[in-house]
Structures are given as structure tokens and as C-alpha cells.
Amino acid sequence: MTDPLLSELLDLALEAARRAGALLRDGRPADLGVAATKSSPIDVVTEMDIRAEKLITGYLSEHRPADGFLGEEGASAEGSSGIRWVIDPLDGTVNYLYGLPTWSVSIAAERDGERVVGVVEAPMRRETFHAVLGRGAYGNGETLHCRPTAPLDQSLVATGFNYVTEVRTHQAAVAQQLIPRLRDIRRGGSAAIELCDVAAGRLDGYYERGLHPWDVAAGDLIAREAGALTGGRPGRPADGDLTVAATPGVFEPLQALLEELGAWHD
């Protein structure tokens, strides 16, 4: 049965993501610079990250003032409705700073702690991905399905690297051992887009250490609704230690190999 609340949340998320995407695409200053740093001097925030988050939270609050928020750039509110929005206003900030096209706006809605709506807007790719729990995943209105299962050694897998030197050094060592056991590795720079690419059948799998809830909330739901499996270390959900998403036949061998290689620790 159709849940009117979920339809309302999806419509709001789609519009908020569209508006934020347009702001980021059309409002990017020619002299865009770093406004602040986070975990390290190379983990950056631009003025546009902040503006996009304010646009999203302002729009959603106007329509649903009792909802809570968790945003990468500081938006935080408990709310009283049982709905919480998890927002990454600009996933792929370094790409955006350098003028590369792989960046996105990611908005998810949780109901009583469960992710029920996810939207990822990728303006430079002219793509909008969305999913509602139990209703499938879509890209530009077309139904998404992850790829048919391939052997692990014939799988294309994406990953990402942390901005803390010690962490990324270990991640590079893991990738070095992983590459000979796969078809190849990709590194796009936006976790939300990588998860959507798993959903769209463009990747067989994706993994990364050190992600936050706003990085994966929308993309994880989209990948699962497209038929992919997601999780963290064996027997655990995706968390800051490890996030893994892959086609059903690739998920377990990839997860086991990442456990063996110690991808979950520094």
C-alpha cells in the first residue's frame, strides 16, 4: 500500500536536492576557495557547502518544522515528529573545488531510526537517483538494477581514501593487495555517487573506511532497493569502520577479503 507520508518525504527531498544542486552548479564562484578544514588541512569545506546545507534545511523546515536534522556542515536538531533528515549538501567537495564533475547532493529521511527515503542529485551528470523503502530504486525515473553477479576477479570495485595521512596510507596498502584480485579499482570521490553507480549496474562493488552517516544514508538505501547488498564488517551493518556495497554474489567474497586485508582499521 502507498504510504502518503513517504510520498511527501520523497517529494520534499527531490525538490530540496534539485534546488541545492542548481545553487551549486550555477552559483559556483570563479574564485571559489576553502572556507574551513575538517579532519586535516586537505579535508575541506567551501562556502558553497555551507550555503547548500542552509538552503536544504531551510526548505525542509518550512514544510516540516517538527522534523530533526543531521547534516555534515553542522545542522543538528532532535525534532519531535519521528522523522530525521540526514544531509550531505555537497558530497565530493574536493572534486567541486577543482571543477571536476563527480559531486552530488545527498538527502535521506529516517522514520523512527529507519531509512525510508533517499535522494542523490548529481547535477553535472544530469542524474537524479531516488529510492523509497520497499518501492525500488530509480535513476532519472527509470528502474535501477545492480549488475548480474560476476566472479570477484572479474569485478570492477570502487573505493575512496581518507584525508588523514596515516589512514590513507593504510588504505593504499589494502588497495595494492586488492587490485590483483579484481578486474580493477576506481576512485570517484563521492561516496553517494559510488553507491548509486552500484545500484545502476556501473560497478560490481564499492567499499570505504571512515564514512559518516550523511555520506551513505541516501546511497545505501538506493543500492539496496536496486538489489545490492550492503553492510560493514562481517555480521555488522555499515559504519565508520567499513562500508561495503556490492551485487549479491560479490558482496560476501569482497567483504571477507576486506576483513582479511584489515580494511577496517588504520
Automatic annotation (TrEMBL):
Cofactors (names): Mg(2+)
Binding site for Mg(2+) 2: L90
Keyword Magnesium annotated: yes
Enzyme nomenclature, EC number: 3.1.3.25
SUPFAM superfamilies: Carbohydrate phosphatase
Swiss-Prot/TrEMBL keywords: Hydrolase, Magnesium, Metal-binding
UniProt-recorded name of the protein: Inositol-1-monophosphatase
